[in-house]
Design a protein that fits this description.
The chain is built from 9 helices and 5 strands. The chain has helices at about 30-35, 65-75, 85-90, 95-105, 105-110, 120-130, 155-165, 170-175, 185-199; strands at about 5-15, 15-20, 25-30, 45-55, 60-65.
Length: about 200
């Protein structure tokens, strides 16, 4: 299968990324943890990938590190957790926080993630508990030099949250609740995801 792609970033619109690999454009879906560390458009990047083949589509998911991809692959083995939900979980909570929720049976925290109901949260806790030894710790630092400053970061942030499964009203509320000015779309998304989990 496709293990990784190395190419030039043509477009970034979370959760989608368009990568030019020797003249072929690959559309990749990626979690926000990957978007936080991507270089600017027209720069080369290496993305670790996971291919999902369905009857109606072939979907390519991309990750900044092999550990991040490993966690994604563990998550989608849980009953009721598909690839889209796996991306949402990775986007909304760091790996060490997720592990803490599992260890502490904190289903309430997990239900704050879009698409994760009480039953799914409980299933995650039960099924992931035995897999925590193989759970990587993904530490992503936000480098302001790597951020692609958008013309309208607020709209891009809202669109990205909707793409991750939030209702439009929720996405707007979370983004507009951020009081800091001059933030890029990636920074707004990161803060909105943090705040949505805390509420």
């Amino acid at each position: 299968m496709i293990g990784f792609l190395r190419g030039v970033i043509i477009k970034k619109q979370p959760p989608f990324l368009l990568l030019d690999v020797q003249g072929i454009g690959y559309e990749i879906e990626a979690p926000m943890t990957t978007f936080y560390v991507l270089p600017e458009i027209n720069n080369e990047v290496e993305i670790f990938t996971h291919l999902v083949v369905r009857d109606d589509a072939h979907l390519l998911f991309g990750f900044a590190t092999e550990d991040e991809r490993h966690l994604f692959r563990i998550l989608i083995k849980v009953n009721g957790v598909g690839a889209k939900m796996g991306l949402t979980i990775l986007s909304g909570i760091e790996a060490d926080e997720f592990a803490l929720c599992v260890q502490n049976n904190d289903a309430a925290r997990l239900t704050k993630l879009p698409g994760v109901g009480k039953k799914t949260a409980e299933r995650l806790i039960v099924e992931m508990r035995d897999r925590l030894d193989g759970l990587p710790k993904i530490s992503v630092t936000l480098n302001s030099e790597n951020l692609n400053l958008a013309n309208d970061p607020v709209n891009e942030a809202v669109s990205a949250l909707i793409g991750l499964g939030y209702k439009p009203s929720e996405a707007s509320r979370f983004v507009l609740a951020i009081t800091a000015e001059g933030l890029s779309s990636e920074e707004l998304i990161r803060e909105a995801l943090k705040n949505s989990v805390k509420k």
